[in-house]
Design goal:
Elements: H1 6-29, H2 49-54, H3 60-69, E1 72-76, E2 82-86
Antiparallel strand pairs: 1-2
C-alpha cells in the first residue's frame, strides 16, 4: 500500500504551489499581446483590474491610457492575463 512518510507529505504540500508558480511564469513569457505597449502592471495577481475598479470616475483612467498609448493597447488582467483595449468610432 501507500505509506505516508515525511517525504511523501512534503511532496504533496509543495507540488501544488510549484505548479501554480510555473503556470504564472509560463503565462508571463508566452503573452500573445506583448508586442503592444500598455500601462505597467502594478500587481501580478490583479494586474490593472484593481486600478480600473477603484477609480472614482468611470473612464478617466482609460482616457488617460488612450491618450498615452494610442487607439489599441494592452492591459493586464487578473492572474497575468492580457486584455486588449481598442477605441474608435468604427467599432460602434
Amino acid at each position: 500500500m501507500f505509506a505516508l512518510t515525511v517525504k511523501n507529505i512534503t511532496a504533496f504540500i509543495l507540488f501544488p504551489p510549484l505548479c501554480i508558480l510555473l503556470e504564472f511564469v509560463y503565462r508571463y513569457f508566452s503573452r500573445s499581446l506583448k508586442f503592444l505597449r500598455g500601462p505597467p502592471r502594478p500587481s501580478l495577481l490583479f494586474g490593472n483590474e484593481l486600478e480600473l475598479t477603484v477609480q472614482e470616475e468611470v473612464g478617466v483612467l482609460e482616457t488617460k491610457w488612450f491618450n498615452e498609448y494610442g487607439l489599441a493597447f494592452r492591459t493586464s488582467s487578473c492572474f497575468g492575463e492580457d486584455a486588449l483595449m481598442i477605441a474608435g468610432s468604427y467599432f460602434a
